[in-house]
Amino acid sequence: MNPTSLKLRGTRKVLVILGPTASGKSELAVKLAQKFNGEIISADSRQVYRGLDVGTGKITKREMKGIPHYLLDVANPKKQFSVSDFLILTNEAIAEIVNNKSKLPIVVGGTGFYIDALTGVVVFPDVPPNKKLREKLDKKSVTELFKILKKKDSKRAGTIDPNNKVRLIRALEIIDKIGFVPQLGSSTSKYDFIYVGLKPNDLDKRIRKRLLRRFEPMIREGRKLHKQGLSYKRMHELGLEYRYIAMYLQGKTLQGEMVEKLYIAIRHYAKRQMIWFSAKGGSASPEGGKRHVRNKKIKWFKSEKYKKIESYLVKSLRIYK
Fold first, then answer.
1. How far is CA 173 from CA 15, 33, 54, 139, 195, in A?
2. Among 97, 233, 296, 318, which has the highest number of CB atoms less than 10 A from its own CB?
3. Rounded to the nearest 5°, which phi and psi values hold at 64?
4. Beta strands per DSSP E along the chain
5. Average pLDDT, integer, range 282-299
6. In 120-202, which ranges are continuous DSSP H helix?
7. In the chain, pLDDT over 70 holds for what percent of residues?
8. What is the 3-state composition of the chain as percent helix, strand, coil, each rounded to the nearest 5?
């Protein structure tokens, strides 16, 4: 099929490609955009920041192969980018792709809360920032904040990154306002979302290989960001790679130790991503509470099964010449 000859039955289809880090989402998205006349919107909470390229695994211009990408490099890393910011920009991008270009929007990423907020799987709480509460909570350690969250909302504690201070504070801020962090909802959307999930058998191997390949460039990137005024505290808040880069640059860890600890941290992050997306039931609470069902519309594939994914989408998107 020639992409220029493909049309969609209906004009409100949106393809969502999700899965854990290092599963091959970006590469698959480009292939599918070429095949189905699409354009890509990133749903990654850190790739929105300018300069955070190597550490986040941001797709390069060469890897884009001419396919337009949205929601990359749209925010200053010194400032917070919220899910509400994501929703505003993403809905604008979808409207542009659908209404002005008559193409297929392809949302790709591993930030589950962003995707669920966009697709209506979760009810996004309209809770404004509470400056006084944030200042109070910011004085506590991540361990203290996580213990408070577990006590107040064990379900959210089961899916959140326990080392991400920004998200811990935001969760407690929402709880302070409405009593809990919304998990699942019946929110509706004007778009018809088709989901493809990637779940490779060799994820641990992929994570280690990518980490070793990117280590030296990540360190150089970290030095550059700090020289440009990004504080070590902010790098720590940005999580995962940047947290460990900051520790390394401050002399708090040795290279070999950093690689192994970061490898373990990324593996744990990938597991939390799968817990979030899992159609078999999502976030069991640390206290052993009942699991709640996640998005059953996700169709899971092995990362290398491109032909099967393509065949599935031809039917699901109801494409014709």
1. 32, 39, 31, 14, 31
2. 97
3. -70, -25
4. 7-8, 13-18, 38-42, 69-70, 104-109, 192-198, 298-301, 319-320
5. 51
6. 131-138, 142-152, 154-157, 165-178
7. 86
8. 50, 10, 40
Please provide the average confidence, as pLDDT, over all residues in the chain. 86
Query: Both tokens of residue 261?
Result: 């600890």
Question: In angstroms, rounded to a whole number, what is the distance separating the alpha carbons of residues 60 and 57?
Answer: 9
pLDDT digits (tens, 9 = 90+) for 106-124: 999 999 889 988 987 766 6
Pick from 148, 135, 205: which is nearest to 175 by CA? 148
Comparing 94 with 185, the larger pLDDT belongs to 94
Q: What is the rounded distance in angstroms from the CA atom of residue 232 to the CA atom of residue 243?
A: 8
The token pair that represents 210 in the structure block? 């990518």
Closest CA to 70 of 47, 37, 100, 98: 47
Compute the distance between CA of residue 296 and CA of residue 279 in angstroms, rounded to an integer: 5
The yes-or-no verdict on residue 292 having pLDDT over 50 is no
pTM across the whole model: 0.79
- On the question of pLDDT at 321 being above 50, the answer is no
Tell me, what amino acid is at 282? G
